[in-house]
Amino acid sequence: MCVDYRDLNQASPKDNFLLPHIDTLVDNTAKHSLFSFMDGFSGYNQIKMAPEDMEKTTFVTMCGTFCYLVMPFGLKNAGATYQRAMVMFHDMMYKEIEVYVNDMIAKSKREREHVGNLRKLFERLRKFQLKLNPAKCTFRATSGKLIGFIVSERGIEVDPDKIKAIQELPPPRT
């Protein structure tokens, strides 16, 4: 269902909860030897709406009038709200894991440490009933793509696909 929330977004105050700085996220992730890249299943739709805010998401169809019980895409503060919910990992962030909205990266220097980090992460996900999208998860990688960069034990490298896209841009015609 696609709902136009422009009026609601205009009437809503901006949530200034900060998303992590991408450069810090990439720097904190590099120089590790093992990575697991995970994606939250249906991202924002895993966050339950506050009962008093459900009616604000009301939409009408030919079958009736409905409202969302979970946070829909398109709300101005959805990203900030989701990132705030990631406080569930407060003791793990910047150490064993990095979280950027619905993307989670477990990182470690050794295999045994990595298994422990994943166990702790999965226990937390289970406790708060959050699901991962298995089709978008990669476990126990020695390098991986992260927001336009390749991170590995060697450090940070530019993603060759990003370079290729720029190199293959057609020249301007005007």
Automatic annotation (TrEMBL):
Q: What is a single Pfam family found in this protein's UniProt entry?
A: RVT_1
Question: Where does the Reverse transcriptase domain start and stop, copy by copy?
Answer: 2-150
* Matches recorded under InterPro entries: DNA/RNA_pol_sf, Rev_trsase/Diguanyl_cyclase, RNA-dir_DNA_polymerase, RT_dom
> Would you tell me the protein name for this molecule?
Reverse transcriptase domain-containing protein
Going by the entry's taxonomy, the superkingdom of the source organism is recorded as: Eukaryota
* Organism from which the protein derives: Gossypium arboreum (Tree cotton)
